[in-house]
């Protein structure tokens, strides 16, 4: 029970740090960047065709940074909770019961989305660098990354949520 | 048609929303001049040549870095948002202090440094159809407007990234066989403030009013610069 509370406290800290980091990225972007008008302007921009779609590359950069940091922050906590096994297997089981609760399963789906996006987009960045695909090509590849991320996340979400939804 | 223009003002109390009667073709600079003439004489903005040559009038138009004098309003435009160029300290309203851009520009020695014995000799000739010329030409027309710098998510204070315009110019000069400062430039380009700080955002290429592709120059510099066209 205590172990569960400690884990939940750590989990809360990690979540808060991820949210704070996202805020920092957004504030920094507002200062140094030409492209952070959210809301109506963003929608009107994303609706533009062809060349201006390159604007998505900018949002992909921020998403890549935030997803990379989020996965790293969670991994740091996860290393600790897994190492509870070395301490006592009972404590490990106790903590890991939490992973099968519905809220944690929802979080795991988010984690999967972040990991899938970061990995696929990382491969896209390598491709840009190696083949010099240009802004339009990069935007097309980003469409593919977004599509694949959605498919992977939805597929994974079914698997992750299945036991909790009585399947 | 009436256009509703929202302009970022440094004085929070100053009027920031204006209605302007449009005509066609009307540029964003025409809009600013109309506001200054009809509503707000104290509105601060810069321009000089009015024909996309001097690089003075860079601002953000609906969030994107652009030259005010070159950006024509779409015919059905009803709203417009104008902000100062990003990545620079604001002096007043749409006027920014572009020092961060010029500091990086100066670092790459943005001009040809001839060999000592070049003075007084025959003029150097780079034929129009040579490989060297073909490599240089597409990257040559920079007017130092800073749109790329302002649109890059990495360039700008407080960072020290050389930025797209300086790197683009570095590529031009590294290709140039008359130049003798290649080694210094290569070191700078490969160093901590050089090409490896590019994060593939393509803000530069997307905003260059001269149609240059600084991102491509950065990719080419990463692969070595000279000879690989
Ligand atoms: C297949 C797996 C992965 C690939 C292909 C990949 C690829 C990349 C690439 C190319 C970058 C550079 C991005 C840029 O220059 O803008 C990057 C940055 C980063 N990655 Fe990954 N990555 C992977 C897995 C991970 C994992 C598992 C983590 C977390 C533990 C992670 C955390 C980060 C972080 C924190 C950054 C720095 C982001 C930034 O500074 O904007 N990555 N990754
Ligand atoms: S590369 Fe293009 S956007 Fe950048 S300073 Fe030169 S003309 Fe302006
Ligand atoms: S006024 Fe000279 S470039 Fe716009």
Automatic annotation (TrEMBL), chain B:
Cofactor(s) it depends on: [3Fe-4S] cluster; [2Fe-2S] cluster; [4Fe-4S] cluster
Pathway, per record: Carbohydrate metabolism; tricarboxylic acid cycle
Coiled-coil stretches noted in the UniProt entry, renumbered to this chain: none
One annotated GO molecular function: 4 iron, 4 sulfur cluster binding
Catalytic reaction equation(s): a menaquinone + succinate = a menaquinol + fumarate
Signal sequence range: none
InterPro entries: 2Fe-2S_ferredoxin-like_sf (IPR036010), 2Fe-2S_ferredoxin-type (IPR001041), 2Fe2S_fd_BS (IPR006058), 4Fe4S_Fe-S-bd (IPR017896), 4Fe4S_Fe_S_CS (IPR017900), Beta-grasp_dom_sf (IPR012675), Helical_ferredxn (IPR009051), SDH/FRD_Iron-Sulfur (IPR050573)
EC supergroup of this enzyme: oxidoreductase
Enzyme Commission code: 1.3.5.1
Record domain 2Fe-2S ferredoxin-type: where: 3-86
Assigned keywords, A-Z: 2Fe-2S, 3Fe-4S, 4Fe-4S, Iron, Iron-sulfur, Metal-binding, Oxidoreductase, Tricarboxylic acid cycle
Any one GO BP annotation for this protein: tricarboxylic acid cycle
Entries under Pfam families matching the protein: Fer2_3, Fer4_8
Cofactor note: Binds 1 [3Fe-4S] cluster.
Domain (4Fe-4S ferredoxin-type): residue spans on this chain: 132-152
SUPFAM superfamilies: 2Fe-2S ferredoxin-like (SSF54292), alpha-helical ferredoxin (SSF46548)
Entry-linked NCBIfam families: dhsB
Family: Belongs to the succinate dehydrogenase/fumarate reductase iron-sulfur protein family.
Official protein name in the record: Fumarate reductase iron-sulfur subunit
Species name: Actinomadura darangshiensis
Taxonomic lineage of the native organism: Bacteria, Bacillati, Actinomycetota, Actinomycetes, Streptosporangiales
């Amino acid at each position: 029970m205590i172990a569960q509370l400690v884990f939940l406290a750590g989990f809360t800290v990690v979540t808060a740090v991820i949210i704070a980091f996202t805020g920092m990225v957004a504030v920094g972007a507002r200062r140094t960047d030409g492209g952070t008008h959210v809301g109506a302007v963003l929608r009107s921009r994303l609706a533009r065709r062809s060349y201006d779609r390159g604007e998505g590359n900018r949002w992909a950069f921020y998403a890549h940074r935030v997803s990379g940091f989020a996965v790293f922050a969670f991994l740091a906590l996860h290393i600790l909770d897994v190492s509870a096994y070395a301490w006592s297997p009972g404590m490990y089981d106790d903590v890991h019961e939490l992973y099968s609760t519905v809220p944690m399963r929802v979080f795991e789906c988010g984690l999967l989305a972040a990991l899938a996006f970061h990995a696929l987009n990382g491969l896209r960045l390598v491709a840009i660098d190696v083949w010099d695909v240009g802004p339009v090509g990069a935007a097309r590849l980003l469409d593919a990354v977004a599509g694949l991320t959605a498919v992977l996340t939805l597929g994974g979400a079914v698997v992750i949520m299945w036991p909790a939804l009585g399947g | 048609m009436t256009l509703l223009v929202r302009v970022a003002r440094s004085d929070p109390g100053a009027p920031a929303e204006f209605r302007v009667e449009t005509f066609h073709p009307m540029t964003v600079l025409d809009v600013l001049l109309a506001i200054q003439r009809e509503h707000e004489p104290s509105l601060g903005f810069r321009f000089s040549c009015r024909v996309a040559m001097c690089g003075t009038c860079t601002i953000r138009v609906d969030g994107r870095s652009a030259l005010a004098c070159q950006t024509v309003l779409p015919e059905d435009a009803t709203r417009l948002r104008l902000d100062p160029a990003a990545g620079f300290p604001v002096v007043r309203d749409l006027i920014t202090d572009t020092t961060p851009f010029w500091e990086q520009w100066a670092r790459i020695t943005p001009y040809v440094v001839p060999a000592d014995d070049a003075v007084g000799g025959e003029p150097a000739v780079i034929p129009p159809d040579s490989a060297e010329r073909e490599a240089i030409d597409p990257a040559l027309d920079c007017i130092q407007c800073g749109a790329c710098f302002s649109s890059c998510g990495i360039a700008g204070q407080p960072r020290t990234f050389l930025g797209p315009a300086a790197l683009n110019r570095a590529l031009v000069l590294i290709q140039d066989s008359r130049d003798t400062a290649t080694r210094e430039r290569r070191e700078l380009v490969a160093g901590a403030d050089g090409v490896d700080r590019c994060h593939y955002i393509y803000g530069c290429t997307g905003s260059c009013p001269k149609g240059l592709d600084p991102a491509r120059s950065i990719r080419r510099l990463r692969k070595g610069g000279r000879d690989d066209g």
